[in-house]
Structure formats: structure tokens, C-alpha cells
């Protein structure tokens, strides 16, 4: 069953080897988490719902608890500590677009606010119910999950937007196609959610971000349906798809989405190489991003992440051997691991990887073959499960990300890491911080930073630590001129940093679009542009 | 000097060989154009301007006449017949962003409406002054044409947005870079104009449309400046660049634009092949568009265009030989010419072209080598000059374009061509119509149709013919589900067809963005979304 207060299925674990635990103890001190609040206890804290009855809506407190939060660390702290501040008053599971239309009409009539809900994987507070007197209805799109049509002539597929990653790929793969969109949340997140939050997948270098894959569809708004025809391209004024991409539920509910699909590639290969340090590694990925070879992935772990990953892998003889081999080849304590891959025809993949190897060697990189790439591929959607076991060991994990131009990457990484590392100095707590670059462009790169700190016995104190750290890192991003999000969106957690990049006038423009489709402001209130 | 009532520099001709003229006479009958109204006469018809004085604004009637129209066929008919209905009351040539700010303040104070003007190459009526009592100020951005900064570290270049194609490329090429954006209007159109109209260049297969190249910049609006930071990518809500792309001057004046640039390629090679008919040709370009090889251009002329191009090339022994060789290889009267090209490193270009040749041959194509590609490359920006000489011979030429999914291409081409071919039946006039596909995507293709008809002695009758044809073809596009423009925009000429693809709600969303930046509605009134 899906965990109600953690990540993923509760039958799937991610055991932490003993040396990994020792590594963290050495970094952060011994951890210990207070016992989680039980589901039954949490459910008892859900207040009675003031929502008028409707055949499509349940007010069952379990449904309401399960839809009260997403997957941000703040959400976790609230769920596990029993401190979720607000709950939706009802949850609906529409099966058809007509159901969605009825639910929007109901909300308009009753004055309820509407929170669209895809897979529940938001890490920035998209799903939280706002405080206040107005009733709140969460619309869970998870049962609108079918393939409507695969148009093989035009390489387009039309889905109900609540479809999750695995179901979407299964429907396409059965017919020889793929979307190729693999965010880390792939197993739970939905097509509609990807569009609403401008998601980027692990192979975006080959397939593009969701912006490129989303060809059209239908958005159901309080003011009626918005149809987005799937033209291959158009110059007929502003493209309305771009008013929906990143709209975070504030314009309406994306009920169906047409996506651009690709014939299934013959092969996917992922390899690894190590660089002596971050400078050579970054120079190499920049050169690779600018080359015209068709790579599908470039992911460079900076030194601390490289060391952490090797430690979490459990050490042992093989890792020792690898470390010694790499040190002999010049990649010592500052070494950076690069994962790189290609997808396509067998010959193409070979050629792309051969040419990549040349650039890697030119920059002092040491190829180590397919094993780490194979491991990465196997675990690519399992990493979030690590959060569960770390929590049990007493460590909170959060990640945050930005993107910036190449010349600012180094200083931005340093500013974020310093803000986090020093963020709990006042309470004498350590923070373990590490970073990788996972989406690279000719102009710059995303920066993805993970940080771990000890959970306190008091959930309020853990929350305070998290907010301190998140705030310090977000301010560092803004100060360095990065975007507040490369791939997760704005929601509640990033909204106060948005003006820095959009400006007052820009925010007003976004508000005007939302207001046109939703004059009463009932859609996902408080998020993105309050 | 730049022609005031035609295309391009008046020292550049495009002589029409005798056999080409005979070909047109056979298709359309002998043509004859009435004498053009002289510049002096046209200038005398420009009425006195009611505009209050301002040091940055000239009310000289020559300036006002030269800014009264673009390059649509309707514009030509009016310019050459002396029937331009309205003129801007003043023209300003700002040199700095502060000048632009002053001009917008002046417009707000005096109640003037503002038409942003780039290179004057609009073919859809973007530049026409509206009728009515309110004064109209055209802001010609052509003197804001400098490179502000080439950021080699990040492959970004920041330009004043009035820079024209050749100046932009010269500034980049001197430092080893290129933008790679080559619309046919390249010699005159400007970076700001490309952004405002969602332009597509001839090599968009390699470099992308302007949507991909435009990274950020500044838009000056009546409500203040909108800054667009040049992030490599972002998920921080809707992307404001997409509110500006296609905004056609209605949000504000794009004063600077940051673009993504690429290292100059080692080589550019363009080749040609012929297919026995449109089916095999289209199947081949579709397969090529879906292959992952790095081609830079695919342009397929359908049979009538292939025949017309060969005829306009003047026939002669070489063309005869080619025709006989092709017929012998199976490409007879229905043959279709494909131009295809690649840019990049020498080895890459060779490999891409070799692999393309395999797919071409699989579809029955006959490669004919580099000569037609070389000719195309030499004349790629000269084709519009043909309009001048054809007009002198008594023939009006217009082009229109759309994009649609692959399965609709054939029926859409047929519907457009039939609408045009039969469009003047009532007056017994012939229309010569031909089409190519110039921008291909995995999901579909652009359709670019040219049509010629005889000019009448009465400019009013020529205008009536054009409006009949343009209307019939536009309705055919809408009926077939195509976009009303793939690469030219909306302006005046396409605005009544826009609701078919945007919907009422969609149009309101676009209006709301314009209104936020321009509450008084002074920016380019009547265009896009009146």
C-alpha cells in the first residue's frame, strides 16, 4: 500500500548499509526520530467537514487526511508529527470530464475553493488546504488515467491527464512508443501534474522537458473549457499552452493532454566516468552540452555528493578498489562522478558514447564503464525511498534546486551549500550538504542540492530547522540570480521569492490570466501568485 | 536605396528569363500593371499631422508614408496605387531605452496610439495605422541595433532589439558565433520583430524557432519595464517570455533581447533530390523529421512548385537534361524536389547527409547533388525580389502558410490550392498556385503556398481579387484545422480567424495580459486581439 506519511509503497524498502549509517553519524551525530503519529490518531484530528453533500464528493476523514499534504519535508514533518494545520473538507475522484465540470459548478455555487491533485508528489506545497472559513474541495484526478487515443500517424498520444508515469509508459510501449519523461517522482506523479508544474525528466536532454512534449489538450476552468489544439508549431499570437505550463492549478484543471511521442529506442545505455575535481567535471559537461552529439543524460555529482554516494553504497572491497584505481588515475578526494547516457539506434548510441568519451578524456576524466550507470538505472525511481529509512534513523532529508548560467554555477553552488551548512550553527547542529548538476544546457545548468540534518524530538523544532535552512538556501539562490525552481514549481514554499525573477508587472500578468479563467479566485488559492 | 513601394534595395534585381515569362503568360494570360503612383504624388496625399511636437518625433510626410505599410500584398497594392488609407501621424527613431520610455510617456500623456516598427517586413498588416481621431505614433526601432554584450562563457548575446539579421550575424560571426535564424525577410527584419511574431528561420531544424533562441531581455510597456532574466530553464510558474513571443507589439516594445548563440559551424551543405510524386516525397520528409540525424533543413516542393521553379529558372539545356534524367529514373511530371542540408562539423555533416540519402533512396528519391542546393543558398534571401519584377510584368504574388499534423497535410494543401485556384472564377481570371513544405516536425509540417494572379488596371479591383483569394484560403485553413499562421503572425489580416484556434476564453486570456501592461490600450491597436 502507498505510505500515508512517507514515500512510495510500504513494501518497498531501501536498506541502509551499516557503513553508510556510520558515515552519517560521523557527519551529523547519532540520529533518533520521535515515534510517528499513528494513522488512526491523525485521522481523529481531522475536524468535521462543513461541505454540502454531492454524490461525487467524499468527506471521509481518511481521504481528507491523505490529500492534506504533498511530499515536501514540511509536509512530512506535519504528517509524522500529527501537526497538519488544515485539511480539505472533501475529496472528489472524477471519472469523466463531465464530472470535473460538475465539480467546478458545485464549487462556484457553494463558494468552495478547489485544489487540483495529481499524484500527490508536490515538494513545494501545491496541495495544502488554505486556512480560513471557506470550504475546500480537493479534486483527485487519479482515476482519469486512460489513453484516449494513440495517433500513430502523427506521433501524438491523447491521455486523460490523471495518468501516472508507469501507466502512461505502459500504454505507449505496448504500441512501440515512448514519451521519455522520467522525473524522479515518475511512479506516482501524473501527466497533468507534470504540465502544471513544468516538470523536467531525467532524460530531458534527449526528449526535452514537458514544455516540449505537451502538444495540447483541454483545461477545464470555472469560465468554461479551454481547448488547446495540437499544432506542430504556430505563430498565431502567444501560445496558450504556455499559459497552462506552470499554472499550478490556478487557471483550471487539466483534464486531457496530448503529448508528442517517439518510437521506442532500440537501446538505452548509461555509463560513468570520474573527474579529478569539479572544475574539470563542469568543463566537460559544458562541452558535452554544447556538442551536437545526441546524449540523453548528463549528471555530474560534485565532490561531496560523489563521496556520499560511494559511502551510502556501503563501501566494501569493490568501492575501495575503485577509489584506489581512481586515485592512481588522478581522481582523488575531490573527484566528481559523471553519469552519462544515450538512447536511440544501436549504432547511434555507440557513436554518441564514443564521441562523449573523447571529450571526457580531453578533460581529464576516467571512464569506469557501465556498472554505476546500470545501478543508477535500476534505482532511478528508488532514491526517494531512502528518505523513509533515513527518517527512521533520525535524519531529515530535503532537496532544492535552481538553474543558472554556466559562469554563475560555481558561486551559486557555494552560496547554497554555505547557507545550508551554516544554517543551524546557532543550535550547534550539523548539516550535511551535497550537490549535483542534472540538467545541462548550452547556456547553463540546473543545480540540485540535497541536505540532511537531525530530526528533533519536538516536531516544531524540526520544522523550525527546516524553515531556517530552506529560507537561507532560497535567499542564496535569489541573491545569486538563479531561478527559484528549475523543475519543482512555486506552490507555497517559493511564492515569496517569485517577484525577484518575474517582477511586479510580470506577476500581475500571470494573475490576469488566472483571473480571466477564474474570476472568483477559487482555484488553488494561495499558491504561485496569491 | 530601399524601395518605398516594393521589396528590398532598388539596386538589386531578379531578372525574369524569357521562358519564365512565357510560362506565366501561358498559365495566367498576358499581364500588365498600371503605372505606379510616384513617391512625390503619394507624399502629397499624406495629410497634415495633429501630433503635438516632441524632439524625438518627426512628422515629415515622407517618414510617415514610409512607415504606413508593411509587405503584404494588400500593402503593395495600396502603395503602388496610391490608396494607403491611413498614415501614422509621427515617426520616432529612438536611440536608447530612455528614448523609448519618453515616447511611451508622451503617448500616454497625449492619448496617442503606438505602433512598434522593426524592419517593416510584416506580411499580415502589423504596421497599418488605424482609422479614427486618435493620433498614431510609429516607433521605428531600427537605430537601436547594437550588440550590447556577447557573453562567450554562457553562449548568450544581448542585442538592442532593432538589430537586423545581417548586422546581428555579422556581430556574432566576427567572434565565432551564430544565431542561425534566417527567415526569408532576414535582410530587413529585426530581432525584436522575430520575437514579437514568433518567427521561424530556414534552418530551424538545426537551430530551432525564435521561441527556442529568445532567452530573455527587456520589454518596455506603458506600465513600466518587464525584465526577462535569461535562465537556461525554469519551472517557476508560467514563462513570461511566452507572453511576449507573438505579442505583436500589444504588450510593449521589446527594447533588448538576449539570444542563445552557437559556435559557428565548420560547414553548411545543402543538397537536392527528386521524388516521383508528392506521396513518396512526403513520406520521406516525415521519416527524415523523425530520424534523430542532425539535419538543418528539409524543404519539399510539391509538383506544381517543382515545375514552376524549374520553369522560372529559365529552362535551357541543363534543365532539359535534368528533366530527362529524372524521368528515366522514375520522377516524371509529378516529381517533387527536396532540398536538404546539414550544418556542423565536417564529419557530422557528411554522416547526416549520408544517412539522409539512405532514407531518401528508400522512398524512391533520386539525389541530384549540390547544384540546386548551392543555387538555393545563393538566392535564399533574393526570392522576395522576384515580386518586384513580377509586378512590373503585371502579376501579383502572394504567399500564405499554415501548419498541421501529417495526416492532414495532403487534404489541407488540396483545400488551400483549390480555394485559390477557383477563387477568381467569377471574373474569369486564372490563379497559378504552388506549395512547398518548409518546416517539418515529427508531428506535422508547415504548408507554404504561393499564388499569382493578374493585376488589374484598377487598384481597387486588384485589391478585391486579393481579398477574395486570401479570404477563401484562410477559411480553407480553418476548415481543415490548421493554424492560421506558422511563421508570419496575426496582425490585421488573420485576426478574424484567430478565435477558431484560441477560443473565446483563450482570446480573453491574451487580452488580459495585454491590458495588464497597457491598461489604456494604446499599443498597436486593432492588431492580434482587437
Automatic annotation (TrEMBL), chains A, B:
SUPFAM superfamilies attached to this UniProt entry: FAD-binding/transporter-associated domain-like, FAD-linked oxidases, C-terminal domain
Signal peptide positions (record): none
Binding positions for substrate per the UniProt entry: 387
Annotated binding of FAD, by residue: 116-122, 248-254
Cofactors named for this entry: FAD
Active site: 448
Transcription regulation as UniProt keyword: no
Annotated ranges, domain FAD-binding PCMH-type: 84-264
Single GO MF annotation: alkylglycerone-phosphate synthase activity
GO biological process entries: lipid biosynthetic process
Organism superkingdom: Bacteria
Matching InterPro entries: Alkyl-DHAP_Synthase, FAD-bd_oxidored_4_C, FAD-bd_PCMH, FAD-bd_PCMH-like_sf, FAD-bd_PCMH_sub2, FAD-linked_Oxase-like_C, Oxid_FAD_bind_N, Vanillyl_alc_oxidase_C-sub2
Annotated site location: Important for enzyme activity: 299
Record key words, sorted: FAD, Flavoprotein, Oxidoreductase
Record-linked Gene3D superfamilies: 3.30.300.330, 3.30.465.10, 3.30.70.3450, Vanillyl-alcohol Oxidase, Chain A, domain 4
Protein family: Belongs to the FAD-binding oxidoreductase/transferase type 4 family.
Entry protein name: Alkyldihydroxyacetonephosphate synthase
Species: Desulfotruncus arcticus DSM 17038
Lineage summary: Bacteria, Bacillati, Bacillota, Clostridia, Eubacteriales
Amino acid at each position: 500500500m502507498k505510505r500515508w506519511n512517507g514515500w512510495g509503497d510500504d513494501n518497498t524498502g531501501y536498506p541502509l548499509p551499516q557503513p553508510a549509517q556510520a558515515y552519517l553519524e560521523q557527519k551529523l551525530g547519532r540520529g533518533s526520530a520521535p515515534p510517528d503519529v499513528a494513522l488512526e490518531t491523525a485521522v481523529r484530528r481531522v475536524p468535521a467537514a462543513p461541505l454540502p453533500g454531492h454524490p461525487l464528493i467524499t468527506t471521509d476523514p481518511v481521504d481528507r487526511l491523505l490529500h492534506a499534504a504533498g511530499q515536501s519535508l514540511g509536509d512530512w514533518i506535519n504528517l509524522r508529527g500529527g501537526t497538519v494545520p488544515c485539511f480539505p473538507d472533501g475529496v472528489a475522484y472524477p471519472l469523466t470530464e463531465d464530472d470535473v465540470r460538475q465539480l467546478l459548478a458545485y464549487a462556484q455555487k457553494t463558494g468552495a475553493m478547489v485544489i487540483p491533485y495529481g499524484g500527490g508528489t508536490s515538494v513545494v506545497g501545491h496541495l495544502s488546504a488554505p486556512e480560513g472559513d471557506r470550504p475546500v474541495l480537493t479534486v483527485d484526478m487519479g482515476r482519469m488515467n486512460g489513453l484516449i487515443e494513440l495517433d500513430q500517424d502523427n506521433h501524438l498520444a491523447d491521455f486523460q491527464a490523471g495518468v501516472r508515469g508507469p501507466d502512461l509508459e505502459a500504454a505507449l510501449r505496448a504500441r512501440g512508443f515512448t514519451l521519455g519523461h522520467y522525473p524522479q517522482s515518475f511512479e506516482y506523479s501524473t501527466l497533468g501534474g507534470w504540465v502544471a508544474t513544468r516538470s523536467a525528466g531525467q532524460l530531458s536532454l534527449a526528449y526535452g522537458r514537458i514544455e516540449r512534449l505537451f502538444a495540447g489538450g483541454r483545461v477545464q476552468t470555472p469560465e468554461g473549457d479551454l481547448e488547446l489544439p495540437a499544432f506542430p508549431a504556430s505563430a498565431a499570437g502567444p501560445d496558450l499552452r504556455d499559459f497552462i505550463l506552470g499554472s499550478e492549478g490556478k487557471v483550471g484543471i487539466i483534464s486531457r493532454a496530448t503529448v508528442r511521442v517517439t518510437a521506442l529506442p532500440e537501446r538505452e545505455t548509461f555509463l560513468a566516468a570520474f573527474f579529478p575535481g569539479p572544475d574539470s567535471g563542469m568543463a566537460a559537461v559544458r562541452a558535452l552540452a554544447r556538442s551536437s552529439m545526441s546524449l540523453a543524460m548528463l549528471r555530474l555529482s560534485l565532490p561531496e555528493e560523489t563521496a556520499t554516494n560511494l559511502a551510502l553504497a556501503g563501501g566494501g572491497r569493490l568501492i575501495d578498489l575503485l577509489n584506489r584505481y581512481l586515485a592512481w588515475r588522478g581522481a582523488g578526494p575531490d573527484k566528481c562522478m559523471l553519469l552519462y547516457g544515450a538512447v536511440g539506434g544501436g549504432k547511434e548510441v555507440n557513436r554518441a558514447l564514443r564521441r562523449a568519451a573523447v571529450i571526457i578524456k580531453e578533460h581529464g576524466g576516467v571512464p569506469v564503464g557501465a556498472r554505476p550507470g546500470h545501478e543508477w538505472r535500476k534505482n532511478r525511481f528508488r532514491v526517494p525511498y531512502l528518505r523513509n529509512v533515513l527518517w527512521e534513523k533520525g535524519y531529515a532529508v530535503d532537496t532544492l534546486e535552481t538553474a543558472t548560467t554556466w559562469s554563475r554555477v560555481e558561486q551559486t553552488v557555494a552560496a547554497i551549500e554555505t547557507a545550508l551548512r551554516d544554517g543551524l550553527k546557532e543550535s550547534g547542529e550539523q548539516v550535511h550538504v551535497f550537490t549535483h548538476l542534472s540538467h545541462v544546457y548550452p547556456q547553463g545548468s540546473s543545480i540540485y542540492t540535497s541536505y540532511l540534518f537531525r530530526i528533533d524530538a519536538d516536531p516544531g523544532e524540526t520544522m523550525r530547522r527546516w524553515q531556517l535552512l530552506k529560507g537561507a538556501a532560497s535567499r542564496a539562490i535569489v541573491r545569486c540570480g538563479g531561478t527559484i525552481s528549475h523543475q519543482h514549481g512555486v506552490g507555497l514554499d517559493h511564492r515569496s521569492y517569485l517577484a525577484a525573477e518575474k517582477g511586479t508587472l510580470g506577476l500581475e500578468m500571470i494573475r490576469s490570466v488566472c483571473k480571466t479563467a477564474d474570476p472568483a479566485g477559487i482555484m488553488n488559492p494561495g499558491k504561485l501568485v496569491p
